[in-house]
Amino acid sequence: MKRIAIDMDEVIADLFTSQLTMFNNDYKENISPEDIMGKKLRHHRPDLTEELSNYLKQPTFFRDLEVIEDSQEVIKELSKHYEIFITTAAMEYPTSFTEKYEWLKKHFPFLNDMNFVFCGDKSIIHADYLIDDNVRHFKGFSGQGVLYTANHNINEIGYDRVNNWQEVKDYFSKRVK
Amino acid sequence: MKRIAIDMDEVIADLFTSQLTMFNNDYKENISPEDIMGKKLRHHRPDLTEELSNYLKQPTFFRDLEVIEDSQEVIKELSKHYEIFITTAAMEYPTSFTEKYEWLKKHFPFLNDMNFVFCGDKSIIHADYLIDDNVRHFKGFSGQGVLYTANHNINEIGYDRVNNWQEVKDYFSKRVK
């Protein structure tokens, strides 16, 4: 059985929408996703890099993230044909460990928590595929990287790309056959 | 540069001594390591499996563990020639995440926290070597397993074995040369 490693933030957990909403509220801004296409919010407001990072250090931030559309259904289906691991770069926000774990147990109860991985450098991941929104994690990864479209990575080229979970389903259903 | 993945509990963190001391104190016992050679404490007292597991769920338990002798010096030396990752099966005790992270930052400040991995099933680890006291983690591991001697694994045969950190040093110095 082949193995798919799946990132959390911006792949199954909608970090971007939460962060943008909090930012617009706190700074009386009205930035839309289109305004910052191709970059992260911290690149749009480098003067507020620390404040933006602080959102992610709030214990409740990760707990309350919305689930990305269709990810639950598609992962459940994929888990019949593939070994599924959730591999998240949690070391960047050590205060998030417990919330990330509880979020996964709540929203993906059908996954085995022995297959959750909190790491930093994802070259440590031994899998056939890695679905991730950050291309830096494909460097050194020994399997096939699959770029999950996020606002910030829209201009990246040269990778297998999926735009939503229905496309993830198609991508892998072709491979099983 | 080749990569060594290193387990925490019973390899760099002395979980066994702490657990045995607490157990003897709480249950007015006087069990020595020799009394339970070749097995874990929970196999010696299966009636107390849950109570023994509860020790590991106390938030302070992992924070206060002693460092295994010579592990700091040898890992520091090894890190000149190898990529070092710390790979711990933290998903078994989700309440331990923060304490394990802080313990590593305190006792191994020279390691990059991007190379810390909290996981469950270690077949996800992509490394050339895995130093671990639990042989079950070698099953499915794609590299070379190196069994670090612990009280409970003393009767395991068929593995490369190291009895202390000086032997780890010797094991890898031969390979670099």
Automatic annotation (TrEMBL), chains A, B:
<protein>
    <submittedName>
        <fullName>5'-3'-deoxyribonucleotidase</fullName>
    </submittedName>
</protein>
<feature type="active site" description="Nucleophile">
    <location>
        <position position="7"/>
    </location>
</feature>
<dbReference type="InterPro" id="IPR010708">
    <property type="entry name" value="5'(3')-deoxyribonucleotidase"/>
</dbReference>
<dbReference type="InterPro" id="IPR036412">
    <property type="entry name" value="HAD-like_sf"/>
</dbReference>
<comment type="similarity">
    <text>Belongs to the 5'(3')-deoxyribonucleotidase family.</text>
</comment>
<dbReference type="GO" id="GO:0008253">
    <property type="term" value="F:5'-nucleotidase activity"/>
</dbReference>
<dbReference type="InterPro" id="IPR023214">
    <property type="entry name" value="HAD_sf"/>
</dbReference>
<dbReference type="GO" id="GO:0009223">
    <property type="term" value="P:pyrimidine deoxyribonucleotide catabolic process"/>
</dbReference>
<dbReference type="Pfam" id="PF06941">
    <property type="entry name" value="NT5C"/>
</dbReference>
<feature type="active site" description="Proton donor">
    <location>
        <position position="9"/>
    </location>
</feature>
